[in-house]
Amino acid sequence: MRPQVAPYGSWKSPITADLIAGEMLRFGQIVCSDADIYWTEMRPAEGGRNVIVRRTLDGQTSDMTPAPFNVRTRVHEYGGGAFLVSDGAIYFSNFADGRLYRQLPSAEPQPMTPEADLRYADGVMVLHRNRLIYVREDHTVPNREAVNTVVSLNLEGDGGGEVLVSGNDFYASPRLSPDGTRLAWLTWNHPNMPWDGTELWTGEIEADGSLGHTECVAGGIDESIFQPEWSPDGILHFVSDRTGWWNLYRVSPEGIEPLCEMEAEFGGPQWTFGMSTYAFASADHIICTYNMQGAWHLGSLNTVTRKLDRIEAPYSAISNLGAIPGGAVFCGGSPTEPTAIVRLDLAKGQCDVLGRSSEVAIDTEDLSIPQAIEFPTEKERTAHAFFYPPRSRDYTAPAGERPPLIVISHGGPTGATSTTLDLVIQYWTSRGIAVLDVNYGGSTGYGRAYRRRLNGQWGIVDIDDCVNGARYLVERGDVDGDRLTIRGGSAGGYTTLSALTFRDVFKAGASYYGISDLEALAKETHKFESRYLDSMIGPYPERRDLYRERSPIHFTDRLSCPLILFQGLEDKVVPPNQAELMVEALRAKGLPVAYLPFEGEQHGFRRSENIRRALEAEQYFYAKVFGFALADTVEPVVIENL
């Protein structure tokens, strides 16, 4: 059957907003305990509830978290490391009250910590002492910055915990040696973020459970340490970017030894707790994942010979890796497969899917396969992105027409996009809209020098790279230069708003909980990010001039194109007034503007009805702005000044 000819943007697609909102799970932490595998699933259809799922050795999969419990922590606001398992018992943080709960087999969860504004993450079991060690974030004193510590908790419940380590601004990754006598942890202070510089410390655990002698074994203000782990024979390993790339190291009597020096990233930015890029199959055998030029690979590293062998696997994005007898488990995705929980059998070299983020099958003829591109940008540099041309098995465009383009600016901004099948991207491409997913300067996956391009340059480098990526595609003849759009969430929302304010390339934009006032963000945001802008812009208030110069809210007179904004009304990272101020300014200027606030949503939407509404509203907005017909019936959006 010959494809139907229809304008770009008006194609009917099998990838619906309902499909994306209702079917797509988000996988989180993976825990391997004995022969069982546990992981978390964020379920939009259940109001964004996070549920622990267990897969037993005989292949039985079952939910472990009864409603209404929600396995999620708010330490650093972004959470992670929300549960652990020991001898069949599950210990987890419940989102509604922040308390730790113990769930014994076939029993209801019972609270372990008091009703207080104390938050816990990244726990580890001290088996022979009947205790747990956690990172704790204390919010009990009003109008005081939260206090982060490492604490010890009695399994029988003894209050909020006994402080083991304190005095610094942040802690992460408490890890016990196999014999239980030594504790390792990461720590850092303002204004650093964990990808700027951290210290790796160890301490001796005394007979009474307190810490004895402690020492810093690696790291500093300019060296980022990631994921400390003890090998089965008690040797401390970690990832460091001391050479400019996050590589694997170990602590030996002779000092710090590199295990595999490569221009590749064996770590990532620690936005959440519990991240894992390597695990021990045995004392001298590490299963690892590493990123080269934006694509992740699996590897088998012999720590004696220090030889890395690549493991062939059909995945280009790999995370949350854990070891099991004879293999490994991880989250994996590819350009044609959404994220899945995958088990690797080392002997057979075989990957088996244990759980899928979506069971919906999409014909590959409707999928746009990303093309990695490197394009010229400012200062004679190049930047990276993935280009998705429009694709449909049922439609083709009229001869000579070029498609609209959506440029995506990812969040973070110290993050990265990947080539894993993203149905939101395919939502656009299957309707005849091209997408450019940009890993602008500042993104991870390309070494420390690339990551640090954003230092002092946020609101400049990221915008330049998004603009130059779009221009590159226009010059190649791939897209329509008169229908260029930019969208992004959080930090990506800031880049979106800034690109529309300080450049004249894009004709429309969509901001999801984006930042419009950097000065307000510096004053109002949570502890973890409260000094983040020091490195990306400058110290505040000393460089207040730069904060104002790069804040779109102060230059709305330069805006000249339509904008739609989406905001969670319970967002503590980027408060709603950031969006509301922008809406008021656009309204006053007479520019087309739409605003959709969502009750009950925080930083990132989790409820299926809101995910669906936002996506369809954005589609409706573009159709009205660019004048193409919609193939679907979509609830209208109020667009003022149109």
Describe the fold and architecture.
15% of the residues lie in helices and 36% in strands. With 642 residues, the chain is α+β, with helices and mostly antiparallel strands. Among the domains are: 277-361; 362-564 and 578-594 and 617-626, Rossmann fold, CATH 3.40.50.1820. The chain has an 8-stranded mixed β-sheet with strand order 30-31-34-33-35-36-37-38, with helices on both faces. Strands 2-3-4-5 form a 4-stranded antiparallel β-sheet, with no helix packed on it. Strands 6-7-8-9 form a 4-stranded antiparallel β-sheet, with no helix packed on it. The longest helix is centred in the C-terminal third of the chain and has 19 residues, at 608-626.
The name of the CATH superfamily of the domain at 362-564 and 578-594 and 617-626 reads Alpha/Beta hydrolase fold, catalytic domain
- The proportion of residues forming helix, as a percent range, comes to 10-25%
Taken as a percent bin, the fraction of beta residues is: 35-45%
Q: Can you identify the CATH class of the domain at 362-564 and 578-594 and 617-626? A: Alpha Beta
If classified by CATH, what would the architecture of the domain at 362-564 and 578-594 and 617-626 be? 3-Layer(aba) Sandwich
CATH topology of the domain at 362-564 and 578-594 and 617-626: Rossmann fold
Low-confidence stretches: none
The quaternary structure here is single chain
Describe the global form. globular
Number of strands: 38
Number of helices: 10
For the termini, the CA-CA separation is 40 Å
